[in-house]
Amino acid sequence: MPFLLESYISGETVVVKNIIKSIFGNNQNEPEEIAPVVVEQIEFEPQLLPQVHQSHQLNVGYYQSVGKQREHNEDALFTLTTAINSGEGILEFGLYIVADGMGGHQHGEIASEVAIRSLAGYVTRKVFTPLFNPRPSQPQDSLQEIMREGMQEAHRTILRSAPGGGTTMTSLLLLGDQMTIAHVGDSRAYTILNDGNLQCLTRDHSLVNRLIELGQLTIDEAANHPQRNVLYRALGLGEPFEPDIQTIHLVQNKYLILCSDGLWGVIPESTMTKIIHESDDPSHACQQLVDAANEAGGPDNISVILVMLPK
Length: 311
Description:
- By secondary structure, the chain is an alpha+beta fold.
- It has helices spanning 14-24, 105-132, 143-161, 207-213, 219-223, 261-264, 269-277, 282-295, and strands spanning 3-4, 59-65, 75-85, 90-102, 166-175, 178-184, 188-193, 198-200, 230-231, 244-249, 253-259, 302-308.
């Protein structure tokens, strides 16, 4: 579980739509009740959509454990995977989030949960809902701007609902063959390429990683540093707040992984890669990853989401 640092470094047909509204609430600009609509065919304008897939589908697994040494789970995760027929193929999209709360059991657990609900609700309203309309529309803002503002909204929600608490949050928004990542803290996003190599896609906002970047600490020294869990950037940690945002065109990618430091900080990346390669089922792979972390001592809460991309 990471800790806050304030003084170190500055700075998804209508039925589905109604289900989503029941979870996340209505858009204030939309009517409360939606009349049933029958749509025989929806024609999307090609320029509104990323590349669609002709076959296969996103295959997603997730797993979580409180660990062996914690009494409470301050991690939270969210997965939403769906698809819609675009006429040319299947447009697949999904939203995946992992958050690791901090600030004590009550504050950390609340912070991670409200942050995930806030971001998921915001992105659903801004990106997914327009695509479900009989006349699908393009989001008014870029995906990067939507993810950035969604993270900011989650940050403000923590300040209101869990003062004194904070959380990491790493999120992936998939739309066709594009992925936008929004990240803050030291939970991580990885990808496994078609050649089998594992790559970390995010940068830890931790004190020790910053010292490594400055050349003041080696990787070996950081692994045992007494302040290795101290963060200088997290949701709920004062102002200013700025998430890392990036968009990646998925061409050579086979898997995407989101996890808290209860996984990546406990088992080697080589072990993570081996477990994933040896399993054809993402759900089974996630359970094995968590089991491996627990077998290694399970010092922290453990959360992982694994996305197998269409071939």
